[in-house]
Amino acid sequence: MSKLNKDILFLLFEELQDDSKSLFSCLMVNRLWCETVIPILWRNPWNYHEFLTRLGIQLLSISCQSLLFDYLSFCRSINVNIINSIISIGSSSVDHRLFLQQEFYGLVMKKCSELKYLDMRSLEYQIFYFPEAKLRFESLYELKCDTSIDISYFYGLARICQHIQKLTIINNINKTNLGIVKLIEVQKNLKYFEWMDEFDGFISKIDPYKEILLALEKKADTIDHLEIYLDYLDRTLQKVLPKLHKLKSLITSFEAFSEEQSKKCVYRDLEVFRVEYYCLKANSIIIENSGGHIKKITIDPCEYYYYEYYKNFNEYSLIFIRKIYENCPLIEYLSLVFSSSKQHFSEFEKLLKVCQNLKSLLLIICIMDELETDEKNLENGKEVLNTLIRSAPTNLKEIRFFDHIKFSLEALEEFLENWKGRPLSILTSDPLYEGENYVKLINKYKNNGIIKSFRHESSMNVGDMDFKI
Predict the structure, then answer these.
(1) What is the C-alpha separation between 423 and 376, in angstroms, rounded?
(2) For 182-205, how does the pLDDT look when each residue is reduced to its tens digit (9 = 90+)?
(3) pTM of the model
């Protein structure tokens, strides 16, 4: 390994760019490895701030020795939150902090050849008036910000940065920031847009997101990812969403959409779709009108406990399952919620037989009857396992079982005996399987290579399809 060509080493280390522990270990192998790793580490050094802090390394240590590398010349990102926390060490004076910020950003502007990523939340210093700012920021690719930042900062950014492709906005005030509106309007190739409401209190305006959404509408020909969470139902969203016709990834709520409004939302390129429990009817319409390219359908994990309060759940959940196997032949990752009726199990089995690309499956059985006993839950669990044995596609390598799905020791053993030739990872939110007899059984099938992983996690982690087993 130590004799590999530098170009090959660089490609290998690129694959480890999110693995701080491994990258820091590579620094210590030899000079060639160190020289190859440093540009990758310093491209976005703020990723490793917490890792260094845990090791007890002080980022502000002063050395009189000349440095082996011009570290800042490799930097391609600025994270204002981390910079502020570093600057505030040992300094409570506002003037002192502002002076240090000016010196630091001035140095960054001189040293960095270009900046690709900027997290400007908590920004206190206007960094866009440095003489070098235009050269450094005109190639900015990704921006994360919040709406509490002074409007003038966004106007300054809008004059320089017109090629941002990924924009994430945290809305933490209850009024429109027109600087952000301007920033959106001037972008020439905006592809990814994320908006999250995170403020307390009430919004006084009837349509508080209008200006932002109308600016977003003008980018309909470029935006392919939309993630938007609004605390207040918005009429403008109903008009704008159908016009964002090139979406490949959609994460939002159709709670306020009528059936007719949902039918106008046609996304022929859609690949990733996150749904909400109270919008199953609208979600089914979106899936039916998609182009057959959907690979991932997930449900917000924090909502699973409220299905019993959802009117017409049985009817709409059946329709939802059908629309998936009728319109999503390429589906790979799927969250599925249904009741324990024979009809639901029948539709679930049809889905397994049709969706042969399925790799990861999250199953939630909704308890509609409060009188259902543990015995009934075990019966439902056995039916789930039997259905999987009969019809699970060969690509299925990961299954998540949520809360009410329980298995007897006998049913689990029968399932594992019949699941051969493809190592399976299982995630469950029930601590039942940490009992001695279950652990013994699970270890037996781990040793046989049938189980790759079998873990108990929190309900939130089990329900989050992005949480890795």
Answers:
(1) 29
(2) 999 999 999 999 999 987 766 666
(3) 0.79
